[in-house]
Structures are given as structure tokens and as C-alpha cells.
Write a structure and sequence with these properties.
The complex is a heterodimer. Chain A has helices at residues 2-7, 46-73; strands spanning 10-15, 20-22. By secondary structure, chain A is an alpha+beta fold. Chain A has one domain. Chain B is built from 18 helices and 1 strand. Classes of the chains: A alpha+beta, B mainly alpha.
């Protein structure tokens, strides 16, 4: 009986003294989270903005290089490309 | 500021009244802790083990087949790296209750939000193609026609998500993760030298032949497959969907740590399976072929287990990666996006999942794709994109406006994370140098 009560959750309204209630997160009352909706964009210094722009360029370049490498390995660029 | 909890449902001491909640009343604090951990357990294990997907199987097995046990130490280094990265995701997810894509969109603006989303969808979709390609390959080695098996796998994957709530999906997926314990049985069956395994794990070294182009490419692929961008998006969305609470942080961390250990152990066992092929002087083309070749030396169990676990790895990877795409797309588009919602309430979320799975499966049925090349290419692409994804994570974890003092990164977190980012960038730059100037490294 005790094992069954552990396996099957029941509706709990009172917690007896020195007892604990285990509640699955999906069964729990909705928790109030950090309200970030009104914060808008993160304030960034010019150097951070420039760094992120450089990162963007780097990513585009790297993706093109990988594409080239994969095509090269596949032999799609001709026999001399190897 | 982090608000106080609206309600504390787990109390000790004096009798307390609560609004009605479904739960289990226990007397022992120890049992309470164990059961609470089990209710939180899931996202950490899944995000880690799903990363041991078909591409990872291929990469780790190839590493073993080419270099024996000599690259095991890399996995040991990647264990804390992967944990530290995902632990940040845990904090961000629990504090905000929002997915990663939503946070990038909100805090870095529309352009970066879209850029991250497009990057994620591109790599995710290419990865999904490789998952189904691996399913097709393994099925063909088991004499099952891919034209039947691949659509069937797609239907099973879609049913897993459409047939009922988060909890059922999580139970099935955790079970699939635990099936990967079979890799340990394979590793034991192929009888590696335990002294050599121990030495290679704890004493870093370069394999015979020195640093070559293929070794560099493979190391970057290992890093790329062990820590993937989709994991950041997946775990945060998964935590948000499971509605983990502030009080769950320590259990979610434990879940993530155990997941990381489990995944690295399984990855090591995959390398040992590849090592068996090297020990018997077998050539390597793909894991399925290797399983067939090993059959003569290690028996039917090893052959069947490798083929079945390849399929399992691909199924795990597909469900997690497709969900990360669906969650991210739903977050950015503002659609309802939860496994707890019925199809009629979140049609866009489920449709994205179905399209990802269905289209990737369909592409694989078009003959002629070089599987090994696509897998390696995807892993490398993921490895290149990872540093930038972690930079956004790092910036978000230093965002005191959002996280407050409780969840924001500590100075030591920042030191560790910037070190990881720098190392990942160096690996990226090595790859760039290798691609731009192929003769820079000796070919073999």
C-alpha cells in the first residue's frame, strides 16, 4: 500500500508534521519567473557590438570554408582540387 | 531580481496547509530527496546522451579504428567542458522559464535572434539527414529494406511526440538513453587491454604519426560532436517545458552531471569498439561495415548490438534535435510550443517537428549521399558554430538585469567559460588554416 502511494501521486492539501511532499514540476503551482519581457535589448558597449560584428563575418567565412572543404573531399571540385 | 517562490510545497516541521497539488507524502528526508531528484531527472541525461547520436557513433568509432585508445584522454577533458556549458543553460532555463532562442531574440535583438535561429535550423537539419542516413545504413546491414525501415522510424519518432504529453516522451527517451548501456557490454566483449585504456585515458598523448591533417580534422569533429549548439537550445527549452522550479537547480545540476558522465563513458566504449577493429587489422569505412567485419572475431552479439545501437543513437538524436528546432522556432515566432499542449493548441510547434523528421527521412531515401563525408562535415560545422553560441550563452549568464545575483555567473565561471571559448576558437582557426591551406599539415 505504501509502495503504491509512492508510485501514484495523490491530491495533497495538508502536510502532516515532519513529513515532506514530493511534487512533480508539471503538477506544481506555476512559479513566477524572472520578468524579462520589459527589459528589451541588452545594453552593449561599442567594443562588444564590434566584436559581435566581427564574429558574424568570421562565421560566414568559416561556413564557406567548410563548404569548400566538403566539396573538395567529395571530389566535386575536380581531380586537381585534392 | 529573482522573485520569491509563490508557493513552497515541500515542507518539514509543523503541519502546513497547501492549495491542492498532486504529490507524494513521505516521511524520510532521504526518500524525499531521492524522489524529488527523480521528478527533476531527465533533461540533463537526455541532452547529453542524445548527443551520442549517429554522427557521434561514427566519429568515436572512427577515432578508435584509426588511433586505437590514444584519443581517450580527449573525452576526459570534454567531460567538465560539456558539464560547465550545460550547467549555465540549467541556470538560465530555471531562472527565466524561457527557451534559449527566445532569450537571444529578446536580449540581442531581431538580427541576432534570426541569425542564431537560422544557424541552428541549418545545422540541425543537416544533422537530421545524417541520423536517417545512419538508420538506413544500419537497416541495410540487417537486411531490412531502408525504403520500409526509414519511413517506419520516422513514423515512430513522430508518434513519440504526438501521442501524449511531456512525461510520456521523457520516459520513452530516458529508456532509449539507458539502452546505450549496451555499448559498455560491447566494450567488455571486444576485450580491450584495460591497462592501455587506463593509460590512454589519464595520460594525454599524440598518436603515432604525429599531428596530421586527418588527426586535426578528427579531433575537431570529436569536440564538435561532444558539445553541439543544439544542446544549448534543447536543454533550456526542455527545462522551460518541464517547468523546473528554483528549488530544482541542484537536482537539475546533478542530472546534467550524471548525464555528462554517462555520455562520456558511452563515448569511450564506442572508441573501444573501434579499437577492436584496429587490433584485428580491419579497415574502417563506417560503423555498420565495421560491425559486420568484427563479427568474425567478436561474434554475432557485437555485430547486432552495434547495428541496433546505431539505430538507437539516431532515433535519440532525431527526437532531441527536432524538438530543439521546434521549440526554438515556436519561441521566436511566438507560437504556443509545449509537449504538454495538445496538437490543436500548438499546431505550428508539432508541424515543425513533423516537417523536420519527415523531410530528413525523405532526403535519405534519395540514393547517392556519401554518409561518412556528410557526418564528418556536419560535426565540423557544428564545431565551428559552437564558440559563437557559447559567447551568447556567456553574455546572457552575465546579464544581471535578467538573472540577478543568485543565478548570474561567478568570476570562476567566467574564467572557465572564456578558456573554453578560446580553446574552441583555436580549434576553429586550425580548421580554417587546414581548409585554406591543405598542405600546412602533413597528410598522414
Amino acid at each position: 500500500m505504501r509502495v503504491m502511494s509512492l508510485l501514484r501521486p495523490v491530491t495533497v492539501t495538508e502536510v502532516p508534521e515532519n513529513h515532506f511532499v514530493v511534487v512533480h514540476p508539471l503538477d506544481d503551482v506555476l512559479e513566477e519567473k524572472v520578468n524579462s519581457s520589459g527589459l528589451g535589448a541588452m545594453p552593449m558597449t561599442t567594443s562588444v557590438k564590434l566584436s559581435l560584428m566581427a564574429l558574424r563575418g568570421y562565421l560566414i567565412l568559416m561556413m564557406l570554408l567548410v563548404l569548400y572543404h566538403v566539396l573538395d573531399l567529395a571530389g566535386a571540385l575536380g581531380p586537381h582540387a585534392q | 531580481m529573482i522573485p520569491d517562490r509563490v508557493l513552497t510545497v515541500s515542507t518539514a516541521g509543523a503541519e502546513a496547509t497547501l492549495p491542492p497539488v498532486r504529490g507524494r507524502v513521505v516521511r524520510s528526508r532521504w526518500l524525499y530527496s531521492v524522489l524529488t531528484f527523480l521528478t527533476v531527472f531527465g533533461p540533463g541525461l537526455i541532452v547529453m546522451e542524445a548527443d551520442n547520436d549517429a554522427g557521434a557513433v561514427s566519429t568515436y568509432v572512427q577515432a578508435g579504428a584509426q588511433y586505437g585508445t590514444r584519443l581517450l584522454w580527449i573525452l576526459l577533458i570534454l567531460l567538465p567542458v560539456t558539464y560547465f556549458i550545460q550547467e549555465m543553460v540549467v541556470r538560465l532555463g530555471i531562472a527565466t522559464g524561457k527557451g534559449h532562442a527566445a532569450m537571444i531574440y529578446q536580449r540581442f535583438g531581431r538580427w541576432w535572434g534570426m541569425f542564431s535561429l537560422v544557424d541552428l535550423q541549418l545545422v540541425n537539419f543537416l544533422t537530421l539527414v545524417t541520423e536517417f542516413a545512419a538508420i538506413s545504413l544500419a537497416l541495410s546491414h540487417m537486411n531490412i529494406a531502408p525504403r520500409l525501415g526509414v519511413p517506419l522510424a520516422a513514423v515512430v519518432l513522430i508518434t513519440m511526440v504526438l501521442s501524449g504529453g511531456y512525461r510520456r516522451w521523457e520516459c520513452v527517451t530516458v529508456f532509449l538513453c539507458l539502452l546505450d548501456l549496451g555499448w559498455i557490454a560491447i566494450a567488455l566483449k571486444v576485450r580491450p587491454s584495460f591497462g592501455e585504456v587506463f593509460h590512454s585515458t589519464f595520460v594525454p598523448g599524440v598518436p603515432q604519426g604525429g599531428v596530421t591533417a586527418s588527426l586535426t580534422f578528427l579531433v575537431i569533429a570529436i569536440v564538435g560532436t561532444t558539445i553541439a549548439p543544439w544542446q544549448l537550445f534543447f536543454q533550456q527549452s526542455c527545462i522551460a517545458d518541464k517547468r523546473l522550479r528554483f528549488s530544482d537547480v541542484k537536482w537539475a545540476r546533478l542530472d546534467t552531471f550524471l548525464g555528462a558522465v554517462f555520455t562520456i563513458v558511452v563515448a569511450g566504449c564506442m572508441m573501444l569498439a573501434g579499437n577492436a577493429a584496429k587490433m584485428h587489422g580491419l579497415g574502417f569505412s563506417d560503423p555498420a561495415q565495421m560491425a559486420n567485419d568484427l563479427h568474425i572475431f567478436s561474434g554475432e552479439f557485437v555485430r547486432s548490438a552495434i547495428l541496433l545501437l546505431m539505430i538507437n543513437a539516431a532515433v535519440l538524436g532525431t527526437t532531441a534535435i527536432s524538438l530543439s528546432s521546434s521549440w526554438a522556432y515556436g519561441e521566436v515566432k511566438g507560437w504556443p510550443h509545449s509537449l504538454e499542449m495538445p496538437i490543436r493548441k500548438a499546431p505550428g510547434f508539432y508541424l515543425t517537428y513533423v516537417i523536420c523528421v519527415g523531410l530528413a527521412a525523405a532526403i535519405v531515401l534519395i540514393p547517392g549521399a556519401p554518409l561518412q563525408l556528410i557526418i564528418l562535415g556536419v560535426q565540423v560545422l557544428a564545431g565551428i558554430m559552437l564558440p559563437s553560441a557559447i559567447i551568447f550563452l556567456q553574455l546572457l549568464l552575465n546579464d544581471k538585469e535578467v538573472l540577478g545575483p543568485q543565478f548570474v555567473n561567478r568570476p570562476w565561471n567566467n574564467w572557465v567559460n572564456w578558456t573554453i571559448i578560446i580553446v574552441l576558437f583555436i580549434l576553429s582557426l586550425i580548421l580554417a588554416a587546414q581548409v585554406a591551406a591543405p598542405n600546412l599539415f602533413p597528410a598522414s
